[in-house]
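Blinded run. Sample ID left blank on purpose so nobody reads anything into the name before looking at the predicted structure. Input follows.
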Amino acid sequence: MPPLVVVGVKIDSGAYAILKQTGLFALNMLGKGQQAIAFSMFKPAHVEVGKISGEPYRAGSTGQPLLESAVAAIECKVTDVVERGDHHIFVAEVVEAHVGKAIAGRPDEAILGMKDLGDNIFYGG
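Blinded prediction complete.
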């Protein structure tokens, strides 16, 4: 059985509409020191040829955008949706995994986390 990923997506977001329509998504993992890229993704995306919010990307095997600067990314296919409240839960199989460059040390310590974005940045909903 392929690895599974679970994500909660707010039902009135643009990402939700795309996810419901396509049943596919990619999770791009940024590395330490890439805070500026993270902040650029907190706003509605500006898409132009080959760039999302100014960041170069390429299409993965599922057609989903993979940020060129991401440390790693996974492409996923939705298998189930739990529709409750203002966020629905998408359960997905990992279709493909990508590593941008070799990671020195522990991989979990190389990934940018919300705590790395400052004391006033958190996601509560």
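Unblinding after everyone has recorded impressions. The radius of gyration is 15 Å.
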